[in-house]
Design goal:
- The complex is a heterodimer.
- Chain A is mainly beta.
- Helix content of chain A is 8%, strand content 49%.
- Chain A has two helices and eight strands; from the N terminus they run ββββαββββα.
- Chain A has a five-stranded antiparallel sheet with strand order 4-5-6-7-8, with no helix packed on it. Chain A has a three-stranded antiparallel sheet with strand order 1-2-3, with no helix packed on it.
- In chain A, a hairpin with a 3-residue loop joins β6 and β7.
- The radius of gyration of chain A is 24 Å and the shape is elongated.
- Chain A starts with a strand and ends in a 12-residue tail after the last helix.
- Residues 1-26 of chain A have low confidence and may be disordered.
- In chain B, the strands form two sheets. In chain B, strands 1-3-6-5 form a four-stranded antiparallel sheet, with no helix packed on it. A four-stranded mixed sheet of chain B has the order 2-8-7-4, with no helix packed on it.
- Chain B has one domain: Immunoglobulin-like.
- Chain B has one helix and eight strands; from the N terminus they run αββββββββ.
- The longest helix of chain B is centred in the N-terminal third of the chain and has 20 residues, at 2-21.
- Chain B is of the alpha+beta class.
- Classes of the chains: A mainly beta, B alpha+beta.
- The interface between A and B is medium-sized, with 22 and 24 residues.
Chain lengths: 147, 121
Amino acid sequence: MGRHIEVAACTAEPRSLNGNQGSTTVSDEGELSVERHPHTLEWGFAIEYSLPYLQSFVQDVGLREPFNRMIPVVEFSMSTALDRGASGTTGTVNPEIIWAGQYVQLAVEAVIPVNSRSGSHVGWIAQLHFFLDDLFPKTIGRPIFQK
Amino acid sequence: MRRWLSSLLAFASAMTFVSLAGAHAFLDHAAPAVGSTVHGAPAQVKLWFTQQLEPAFSSVRVLDRSGRQVDKADPQVDRADATLLRVSLPQLAPGTYRVAWRVLSVDTHVTEGDFSFDVAP
C-alpha cells in the first residue's frame, strides 16, 4: 500500500516551501525540497475603444444595435522575472469584445500566449454579468440610506 | 474547503464588478445628432436616454461658443416618453453649439455629458 503526504505553504512572498514525503513500500526514505521562486514584476495595460462613447459624446455615426453598445478591448497581461537566476517575460494578449446592454453585459475574450514559455494554445473566456440594480430597481437597486 | 472559498471569492468578485459596471441612463441618440451639422436653426434639442428619467432632477442646457446659455430654459421630460428630454431654442445664428445634460434615472443614478452640433446657414 502506498502512502503519500504533500504539504505546501505559501506566503505573500513569491516563494513557497514544499515538503514531500512518500513511500510505496515499507521504507523510511523521505525527501525535502525547497523551491525558491523569483520575484516577478506583474505589469500590463489595456487599449479600448468605446463605441457608446463615440455615439453619445463625439459623433453619431449611425451605429445601431448591437454595434452601438460594443466596446472592443485588447488587454496585455505580463509577468517579468527579476532575480534568482530567472529571466524573461511571460504573459498573454487578450483581445475582447464587450456588449453592454441595459440589464446584462456579455463579453468574449481570447487568451493568446505571447511566447512559447507562456503557453502553446489559445484560450477563451466568456463572461456574463447582470446589472442587479437595473434588474431590481425598486429593491436592491435603491440606495440603502436616502436623505 | 478550497473549492468553497474559490466559489465565494468568485462570487464576491462578480458582485464587485456588477456594482462598478451597472448601467445608468446614458444618451442613446439626439436631435440634432451628436457631432452633426444641421442646415437651418432647430426649434428644439431632443435627447433620448437608455432609461426613464426623473423630471425634477434632469436638465439640459444649450451653450454657444462663448459658454452663454442660449436655450429658452424650459427643459422638460416628455410625459408620454420618460426617456425623452427636450429644451426649446430661439432662432439660432450659424455656429457651433454645445449641449450639456445632467439627468437622474429612475434607479437614482446621476449621469452627465455633453456634445456639440453645428448650425449651418
